Prior knowledge:
With 153 residues, this protein is of the alpha+beta class. 66% of the residues lie in helices and 14% in strands.
Amino acid sequence: xxxxxxxxxxxxxxxxxxxxxxxxxxxxxxxxxxxxxxxxxxxxxxxxxxxxxxxxxxxxxxxxxxxxxxxxxxxxxxxxxxxxxxxxxxxxxxxxxxxxxxxxxxxxxxxxxxxxxxxxxxxxxxxxxxxxxxxxxxxxxxxxxxxxxxxxx
Length: 153
């Protein structure tokens, strides 16, 4: 179940992803459409409904905290493995629809690498900003609770 291809570039204007297949040593492209906004809405609704049903089932499943945590871990592991397998199966099933393209020129590869580095840095900065904001909010919340308890005493 080893994946032999890696994404190289995603073109947002035409929703096309360029991949490199290390087994065949060729580039191929896969076109995809823009995600429908209703799909996100339906996914969120299904997640909320499933959470409301499954959370009450899990809590009434057992009285022990340890067995509840183990049951949640096992269910999460099974769900994760099945979703990874499903993604692998779908990608291998669609392998015949791949359109192999000629290898990009060195100039095109430099542009792709430059755009990839720019995207990677933006993602790293975004995650770093979220981490710093999270740490700051946690520290300020704990400081405010200490201040409130000190003032009320």
